[in-house]
Specification:
110 residues; alpha+beta; High-Potential Iron-Sulfur Protein, Chain A; 2 helices; elongated
């Protein structure tokens, strides 16, 4: 037996499917960020760049370019979404960094 599909049903189904695709993308991004390991300050690259988990604890004598406003969350290299406590970083591939962290590769977001 053949069943007819009305144009209205077809359009509703298409719109519903189109609305679900971005939601699935957001879930995939969160899952990918959750799979990153937290960056350790003892990591060779991290220690070479003066990485600190807390920007307020950076020694300004050792890193004179550091200011209080410079944090991973405001860096152009930070890949996390607003409101997330951690996110990926272009400098430290495969690791997540805290929003309040800092390293000497910090660059202002455009």
């Amino acid at each position: 037996m053949q069943q007819k599909i009305s144009r209205r049903t077809l359009i509703k189904g298409g719109l519903l499917a189109g609305a679900c695709v971005p939601a699935l993308g957001l879930l995939a991004n969160e899952a990918a960020a959750a799979g990153l390991t937290p960056l350790s300050p003892s990591d060779p690259t991290a220690s070479a760049l003066g990485f600190a988990v807390d920007s307020s604890k950076v020694d300004d004598k050792t890193h004179p370019t550091h200011t209080a406003a410079q944090k991973c969350g405001t860096c152009a290299q930070f890949l996390g979404k607003p409101g997330q406590p951690r996110g990926g970083c272009n400098i430290f591939a495969g690791h997540s960094v805290p929003v309040g962290g800092w390293c000497s590769a910090w660059a202002q977001k455009p």
